Known about the structure:
Blueprint: H1 7-10, H2 26-47, H3 57-75
Helix pairs in contact: 2-3
Amino acid sequence: MGRYVSAEQRGRYTAPRPTSEDHSPRWYGWLLIDLLLFGVLVITLNYLQVLPGSTSSWYLVLGLASMFVAFFFATRYR
């Protein structure tokens, strides 16, 4: 089979990434938390019948969509 050849032996150079690319912006974490809490709050207030329009499935959709977006952003957090 083939023999393992290191990068030094091949003569290739990989430039290091700048440290600014290693971390998400400071507001990104707060956005995650805000979206998640907003979704939980909307769903809770909907079932407590505090929101206008009695209980509505659209409030449930809004809350779940907000939580889905928060979890999607959480997978991209560094």
